[in-house]
Amino acid sequence: MITDITDYDVTHEDAGPLGNQIPNYEKEFNSAKVFLQTASSATGDNLYDHLTEVLNKILAERPENVIDFFEEYSRKVKEQRFKPLTDHLEDIYVQPGRFSLANKILPILSPLPPGEPSTVDPEDLELADMSNNNLIELLYYLEQCGIGLPRSEMIFVMISMRNLVHTKPIASIRFWGKIFGTISNYLVVETMLKEEEYMKRNENYQEEQAPVEVQDEMALNRGEAGETSAALLEIEKRAGMGGEEGSSKYPRPLPPEPLIHYEELPEPPPEPSGVGVNKKVFYVCNDIGESWTELPDVTPKQIRTARQIYKSFTGDLEAEIQSYPEFPGKEKEYLRVQIARISAGTQIAPLGYFTFGGAELGEGGEEEDEFEEAAGGASKTHYSINPRYDPPPLTDLLDQSMSFWVHTEPYILPQGRTTWWNPNPMPDLGEEPGEGYGEEEEEVKPRGERVEPETGPPLLTPLSEDAVLETVPPWSVRVSSKILEGFALAVVRSNIWPGAYCFSNQGKVFRNVYLGFGHKYVEHNFSPLPLPAVQQEYPIGPEILEILDPTGAEEEQWRIDHLPKPKVIPVGEEAEGEEEQEEEEEEEDED
């Protein structure tokens, strides 16, 4: 047995496995270090690093009787190395965008605060039905159609819609879609308010829309100012007049200012809340976690102007709309107008799903409603779900003629309203309400020129009657899967408003959604309207002619030509004139 290093035999290097050998210190050191650096399968730490940190801590503090506190130092080093997985804010870097998004989402995920007790009738406090707003189911169908939004976004939109229902007087709510902007996007929800809320808004609207004669007041002010200036000019003229009349240094009075005889056409009044294009109220937000903003109602002038411009959205509701013609409003009004136009042209349903007349009254109610339509002469504006609806087969929904799909939103007339407004109403003849009704009333002609009323297609008109833009069909239809036809969807896409889709599950379930930029299809490159021709200030006639300025020589020649000519005195008359002059001089000398 070898007991000392001197017992090694240095003369025989290769003495065999049982012979004496010289130890390899470097190899033994590396082997020991590798053993100490073996990581633990539970914590991932190793003894080598742990002893290194313990010794560094002891050498830094140099306590007395360190051998008695070695285990305590080892424990403190292990505590400092321990990092819990839940401590993300201190030890794990979180991007600012994710951190701000988390702060927005946390209030949404929190439960709603308990409402205060109210004495209002429970029926009036009934909230909107959220059973038809399962956006997870909607996302399932949209994925089959090849469109949609991220799942997380759909979930949080559904949660924020629940919170919106509890804070606003909403009777029904629906996810309308998403409009993309250059800076940020808009998430849009469509709502129907309660009847009492519509009544309240219409009362305030009548007060705000009181006629204010601003133009007449301005004209009156201009007239008073003109009269005042003319009076001051006349006073100054009289005060400065001296000597003979007409020798004043002040000029003659100026002619009166020209009057504007142009009268603008009467502007159609906007439709009240809950009627026509303002029937529904829309709320938008830029991103999940942000508060919803209600969009204002639209006016006919805004709709007419929006049809003549082509503007991209920025994502800022208060952004100015720089366009020609000038849009009367900001981006929030323009966004609301585009939503109304998209809804009027792309909201569709399978044929037979909706019907006119009351569903509760049955056939009698439907016939009564038809009688009211015939008597009033106007198209129907209300429909309900058909209780006897028989879903059409998938082959009918995929028909390229689009005869099995109908429009569900009223048509917007060129005037900018869904109902035509007569600018020249019948004159008030002072008759009683019971008189003049029937054939005698038709004989009375309105004042001014007769204007033909604007008409459009009625509600529930088949898509087969839509106009074609040159060679582009207004609609395209396809099937989601040609293999699983029993579970396939009929997908309808609008070519007039790219981004508008409608799908139907064998005619039983259908949804409308819009995911686009809010632009209408243009068959050619968009060209803004040209500026109007410059109006003539004065009529061209002999009184106003443009001529060249005369030169100096011409002016001098004109002056010479217009000098007073000398008087020619006859010879006999000249002598008589001299004698008379001498007699007058003699009389003056005598005096």
Automatic annotation (TrEMBL):
**Coiled-coil boundaries:** none
Q: Which InterPro entries match?
A: Radial_spoke
Compositionally biased region (Basic and acidic residues): 444-453
Q: Name one Pfam family in it.
A: Radial_spoke
Where, subcellularly, is it found?
Cytoplasm, Cytoskeleton, Cilium axoneme
> Does the record bear Cytoplasm in its keywords?
yes
The region called Disordered is annotated at: 425-462, 555-591
Give the main localization category.
cytoplasm
Q: Does the keyword Cytoplasm apply?
A: yes
Superkingdom classification of source: Eukaryota
A single Gene Ontology biological process assigned to it is: axoneme assembly
Query: How is this protein named in the record?
Result: Uncharacterized protein
